[in-house]
Amino acid sequence: MNRTQKQSRTAILILRLIAGLVVLILAFLIGYIFITGLPNVSWRFLTSPAKAFTAGGGIGIQLFNSIYLLILAMLISLPIALGASIYLNEYAKDNWFTSTIRTAIEILSSLPSVVVGLFGFLLFVIQFNYGFSIISGALTLTIFNLPLLTRNIEEALAGVSDDQRQGGLGLGLSKYETIIHIVVPAALPGIISGIILCSGRVFGEAAALIYTAGQSAPALNFGDWNPFNIDSPLSPLRPAETLAVHIWKINSEGIMPDLTKVSSGAAAVLVLAILIFNLSARYIGRKVFEKMTSVN
Amino acid sequence: MRKRTLMKWLIAAVIVVAGFGAYAARSKEATNQQSITAVGSTALQPLVEAASEQYAGDHAGIFINVQGGGSGTGLSQIESGAVQMGNSDLFAEEKAGINPKGLVDHKIAVVGVTPIVNNDVNVNHLSTKQLIDIFTGKITNWRQVGGPNIAITLINRSQGSGTRVTFEQYGLKGHESAVAQEQDSSGTVRQIVSSTPGAISYVSFGYVNKSVQPISIDGVRPTEENVIHNRWKIWSYEHIYTRGQPTGLTKKFLQYLKTNHIQTTLFNKLGYISVKHMQYQRSWQGKITKGSGE
Amino acid sequence: MQQNQKLAKQLMKKSKTARYERFGHLLSLSALLLIMAIVLGIIIFIATKGLSTFFKDHISLKDFFGGVIWNPGTQTPSGQQAVGALPMIVGSFLVTILAAVVSTPFAIGTAVYMTEISPKRGAKILQPVTELLVGIPSVVYGFIGLSVVVPFVRHTFGGSGFGILSGTFVLFVMILPTIVSMTVDSLKAVPKYYRQASLALGATKWQTIWKVVLRAATPGILTAIVFGMARAFGEALAVQMVIGNAALMPHNLVSPASTLTSVLTAGMGNTVMGSLQNDALWSLALVLLVMSLFFNLLVHFIGRKGAFKK
C-alpha cells in the first residue's frame, strides 16, 4: 500500500468518525427530548386545552394552531418561492442584477426572526388591521420562510441536468413548458426535501409569531368548521398561539406547577410531529415523482 | 385537455359556492360577537388571561384576546389606540416616550418583588445596605455577608423591565444595579438562580418556589401581609390603561376584574395582592399615603 | 387578397405556445419581484427606524460604535450618551465566527460521508435526522443548553458557565444541520463524471474528494457556511439563554457577554416605539443587517475567486 492510499484510508476513517460523532450528538439531543418529554404525553395531553396556572393543562389547541398555521403559510409561500426560484434558475441572466437579488434574499434569510416578527406586527397587525390573528401570523411566516424556501427550490432545480432541458426543447416544447413538465418534476424530490426543511423551521418558529399570531389560544368550537365564525378552528382572524410559542411562553412566564412537564412534553410532541411530516412528505414525494415521470 | 380544463372550472366553482355558502351559513351570533384586545406586560398576562377565560365562559359571543409583548408594547399600543387595553407594570408617567395624557389608569393588582438566591448560599436575610452593596458590585462573595465562600453571580432582568425598575427603586433605594447578566423573563431568572451556585436575582412573589430561597430584608419577610402594610417596600401596581374612560365590553370586563370574586380567588392563586386589601397607596412619584385608594 | 391578409395576421400573431411562454416568464418574474419588494420594504423599514437614533436623537456614530456602556436614555460617567454597542457587536462576531469554525469541519465531514462514502446510510439515517434537527425550536435548544451545556462549561472551564463558549456550543449544534444539508446539496450537484474522470486518472478516493469534488463544490459550501453563520447571527432565543446577556466587553470565553440579537429581543417589549431606547434597539437591527450584507459580499467574492471553472 503506497502513501497516497494510506492517506486516503486515514482520511476516510476520520470522515467516518466525524459522521459518527455527529450522529451521536444528534442522537443525544433527540434522545434527551424524547426521554424527558414522552412520559408526559398522553392522549388527554394532546387534546385538552392549556391551563394558565393549575396543573394538568394540555396542548390540543396549540397543536392544531401550529399545523393550521404551517399549512396556510406554506400555501402562500410555496407558489411565490417556486416562481421566484424558476426565474432565478431558468430565466435570469448571470449579471449584477441577479446577484443583487440573490444577495438581498440571503440578507432576508439572515435577519433575526424577531425583526421579521416586528415588521409583520407593524404591517399586518397594525397597518392592515388584521389584529393578532392566524392570517397575520401566516403572512409573517411567509416572509420568514421565503428566502430559505426559494434557495432550496433553486438548489433542487439547479440539480436537474441540462440534458433534460435540451430534451424538452428538442421536442418543440417552449421553455416554460419544459420547466413545468420536465424540470420541476425531475427536481421534485429535492423540492420536497426543501419544503420539509422549511416546514420544520416554520413549525418550530416562535419569535416571529409572538407579536403576530399572538400568545393566547382561546377555546375553539371544534363542532363548527365554518371559517367565518370567530370561534371556528378554521377562522383566519382568531388569535392562535402555536406549540413553539406555548413552550416559549410557559418557560418564560409560566406559573403552573407542572411547567417542566408540559414544556418537555410539548417539545417532544413538536419533534415527533416534525418526524411524522418528514416521513410522510418523503413518501408522498416519491409517489408523486413516480406518477409524474410515468405520465409525462 | 378540454376535460381537464372543465374539471378545473368545476373545482373553482365548487370552492366559490362553498365559500358563499359558508358565509351565508355563519352563525347569527357572529354578527353581534364582540372582541377586545389587551396587550402588554408579560407579568400581568396570565392573570388577565385567566380572568378573560372565566368571563368568556359566562358570556357567549365574547372574545377577549390577551397578548404579551412587554409593558412598553402595551403602553405604545394603547397610546396609538390600536388596542382596547394596555397592560403595564409601570405608571405611564414613568415610561420614557409615553404621553400619559388621555390615558386612564386602572390599578388591577399589587405585586411584591423579592430577592431570591440559590439554595446553596444558605443566606436568608440581608440588610438594605448589604443588598445595595451586592447589587452595585461592592460585595462579591457570600462570605462577606455571613454565607459560605462562594462568589456572587448577579442576574438582572432586562433594562426597562417593570420588575427591575421596581426592585432598583424600592429595593436598592434608587441605586442602579451593576452591569451583569440579564434575562428577560421571570421563569428563566428562577431557573438560572436555582441552577447557578452563588446566584442572586429578584422575582415577583408568584414565581417563588422551593427551587430558590427568598431573602428577608432588615428583618422583614417577603409576605403578602407585609406588603399590605407597606412593611415590605418592594412592590408595585399592575396597571391596565385605557384610552379615555372605558366603554362597552372593556368597561364591563374591567369591572369584572375588580369584583371581589376575582380579586380574592384568582389573584391569590397567582400570587397577586388585591388592591382592595392594601392599607397604603403609592403615587407614581413614590409618595406613600394611607388608604387603599379604592 | 383578404385571405392573404388573414393568413399574414395569423402568422404575425404569437402562437399559443409563445403566449404561454410569456405568461410563465412573467409569472415567475412577478414572484421574484414580490420577494424583492418585501426585502426592500424590510430594509427601508429597519433603515429608517435604525437611522433615527443618529438623526432624530443626535447620537454620534462614535458613541454608538466606540462606546462600551449600553443603557440608552442615561449618560455614562464621562457625560456621553450610554449607547455603546461595541460589546454586543464583538459578542455577535465572536459567537458566530467560533460557531462556524467549530461546525464547518464537522458539517463538511458529515456531508462528504453522506454523499461520497456511504450514500445509502447517509440517506437512510443522517438525512432524516438532520432535517429533524432543523425543526427543533430554538427555545428547546436554549433549555437543553441551560440544563446541559452551561453546567458542563461551568465544571470544565470555570466561571458561571454563561458566556461566549456556551453560546458557541449551542450554536454549533444549531447550525450544523443547516450547513450539512446545504453542503450535501452542493456536493450532489457536482457531476458524476468529475469523480469518474478523477478515479480513472488513478487518484485515490480521498484525492478525488479533496481535490475534485470539494473544489467543485466550494462556492456551494461557502454559501452553506454563510447560511449557517446567518442563522447563528440571527439566532436570538437560544443564545440569549446561555450567553448571560451582560452588555460587557467579553474578557474571556466564559465571562457573561451579549449579542446584538439577545439585547434586541430582550429589550424590544420593554421600550416604547419612537423613544430613544427603542430607536437604539433598531440601530442594533440595522447593524445586524449591514453585517450580514458584508458577510454575503465577502462570500460572493471568495466564491467567484475559488469557483471551479465548469
Could you describe the 3D structure shown?
In chain A, 73% of the residues lie in helices and 0% in strands. With 296 residues, chain A is mainly alpha-helical. Chain A has a single domain, classed as MetI-like fold (Orthogonal Bundle). The N and C termini of chain A lie far apart (51 Å). Chain B has 294 residues and is of the alpha/beta class. In chain B, strand 13 and strand 14 (288-290) form a beta hairpin. In chain B, helix 2 packs across helix 9 (260-270). Chain B is globular, with a radius of gyration of 24 Å. The longest helix of chain C has 40 residues, at 16-55. Chain C has one domain: MetI-like (MetI-like fold). Chain C is mainly alpha-helical and 310 residues long. A two-stranded antiparallel sheet of chain C has the order 1-2. Chain C is 76% helix and 3% strand. At the B-C interface, helix 3, strand 7 and helix 6 of B face strand 1, helix 6, helix 12 and helix 13 of C. Chain A: Belongs to the binding-protein-dependent transport system permease family. CysTW subfamily.
What's the arrangement of secondary structure elements?
The complex is a heterotrimer of chains A (about 300), B (about 290) and C (about 300).
Chain A lengths: L2 H35 L5 H5 L12 H32 L4 H15 L2 H15 L6 H25 L3 H9 L4 H29 L3 H4 L32 H11 L5 H37 L1
Chain B lengths: L1 H23 L9 E7 L4 H14 L3 E8 L1 H10 L4 E4 L14 E16 L6 E2 L1 H8 L17 E5 L4 H10 L9 E3 L2 H10 L3 E6 L7 E3 L1 E2 L6 H5 L6 E9 L4 H11 L1 H11 L2 E2 L5 E3 L5 E3 L4
Chain C lengths: L1 H11 L3 H40 L5 H6 L3 E6 L5 E3 L2 H32 L1 H16 L3 H20 L6 H25 L3 H9 L4 H12 L1 H17 L2 H7 L16 H9 L7 H31 L4
Antiparallel strand pairs in C: 1-2
